[in-house]
Amino acid sequence: MPCSPLIRINLVQAFQEPNATGVKMMKLALIWSLAMSLSAHASETRLSVPLMDRGTGTLYVAGKVGNEESVNFLVDTGSSFSTINQKLLERLQVQGEAKYLRTQVGTLADGTRIEVPLYQVRHLQIGNSCTIEDIEVAVFPNNRRVILGLNVLSRISPFAISVDPPRLSMAGCNVITADNSNQIEPSLAALPQKVR
């Protein structure tokens, strides 16, 4: 929010004449600026989780799909959809965690066009404390790797990927407790140290 002309003039005077009134004006301006900054980011709580660097130029993040065992998602900003494999889909279907939506034609990184089924998964977890509900995933045959694509990354945006140390910072999460049962408001302790 821009300052009004009156506040701007009084701040200039406060810096030029640092008397008791000027010091009070500077303090009020600082408090006002801090309040405006905090209100602009009040709904944006950042959460940071470690990424795994396997030395191949790709980064992975631990998580879960549905109520299944832990998986390591390949973080892929070039993939429009998050993906799971057929074996994981079958386990999710037994638990009632996946629902067929439609078939989608897509283009792979090598240019090959393929048709893949899209399913809606009830929830996906990134790290130990970020959950996203009702996720569309593309299903690939066999035991292909699980990918965290842009459809999920856009839901946790703004997000940032740091490489030293490898971390994924995100704001659009439903933060959950350690027992994964209740949604809570994160404390300031959940904020990342520094995103590079």
Folded structure, characterized:
The chain has 196 residues and is an alpha+beta fold. It has 2 domains: 5-40; 47-190, Beta Barrel (Cathepsin D, subunit A, domain 1). The protein is built from 4 helices and 12 strands, in the order ααβββββαββββαβββ. Strands 2, 3, 4, 5, 6, 7, 8, 9 and 12 form a 9-stranded mixed beta sheet that branches. A 3-stranded antiparallel beta sheet has the order 1-11-10, with no helix packed on it. The relative contact order is 0.17. Residues 3-12, 32-43 and 177-196 have low confidence and may be disordered.
Short description:
This protein is an alpha+beta fold. It contains four helices and twelve strands, in the order ααβββββαββββαβββ. Residues 3-12, 32-43 and 177-196 have low confidence and may be disordered.
The proportion of residues in beta strands is: 35-45%
Uncertain regions spanning at least 5 consecutive residues? 3-12, 32-43, 177-196
User: Structural class, judged by helices and strands?
Assistant: alpha+beta
Q: Separation of termini?
A: 27 Å
Descriptive key words:
12 strands; 9-stranded mixed beta sheet; 4 helices; 2 domains; disordered C terminus; single chain; 196 residues; Cathepsin D, subunit A, domain 1; alpha+beta; disordered N terminus; 3-stranded antiparallel beta sheet
Blueprint (SSEs and pairs):
Layout: H1 5-16, H2 20-40, E1 47-50, E2 52-53, E3 59-65, E4 70-75, E5 82-85, H3 86-94, E6 98-107, E7 113-126, E8 130-140, E9 147-148, H4 150-153, E10 159-163, E11 166-170, E12 174-175
Parallel strand pairs: 4-9, 5-8
Antiparallel strand pairs: 1-11, 2-3, 3-4, 3-7, 6-7, 7-8, 8-12, 10-11
Helix pairs in contact: 1-2
